[in-house]
Hints:
mainly beta
Amino acid sequence: TSSNKTYDANTTATLDVSSVSYSGLESGDTFSGTYSGVFDNKNVGTGKTVTITPSYTGADVSNYSVTDQASTTANITAKALTVSGITAANKTYDANTSATLDASSVSYSGLVSGDTFAGTYSGVFDNKNVGTGKTVTITPSYSGADVGNYNVTNQASTTANVTAKALTATASAANKTYNGNTTATTTLTFSGLIGTETLGQSVGSTFNNKNVGTGKTVTVNSITLADGSNGGLAANYSISAGQTTTANITAKALTVSGITASNKIYDG
């Protein structure tokens, strides 16, 4: 008989001759055999043919016309192979979950040298939003002549970051009537939003001074983003202040009253 074995990329079989029977051997004769076996091919399979090659020795060998046992059967089972070493690249928020994987350092632990086995991999983030150490799920596809000889334990996932997308903005400030301070009312128009996403805004801005003037410089000092519509989340974007525009401060109407005159005696 032949022992089952785990795939090892060769056809060598291990035979068991502990129960060998020599039908027709005369009692007391000196006759013995040694046997080697090979599988029909190296690949995984059940009930595979093992061809037996015999060699006979002993003083009475020449007295027999031997009909050999030509073959037996045994199984080759798949070899465990573990995939590791796949990484994912960090990316800037782009409103989708696609991830870019790097398989340049992939490791196939258990792969027999010389076997043809290759993998291609795709990955997706757990969601589209900004975050650190986010889970990227890996989907593998394997190819090569020896794929069927392995029981593969995939690398299920890796991690990477999604960073906020930087926006730019154009500022527009409203004219105002003089009120003794430099506070300005400014609205920003964003550039860089993904698709139809929108964001809310809270803007702090000031005129260059409090006084009446035309085409006065207005500077944006602070911007706070807020969640908008169509999936726009403030956390997925970043923006820096410092935008400038111009607006007017017009004179404030002032009405004079309450002046009185004193009576007097004619004095020419």
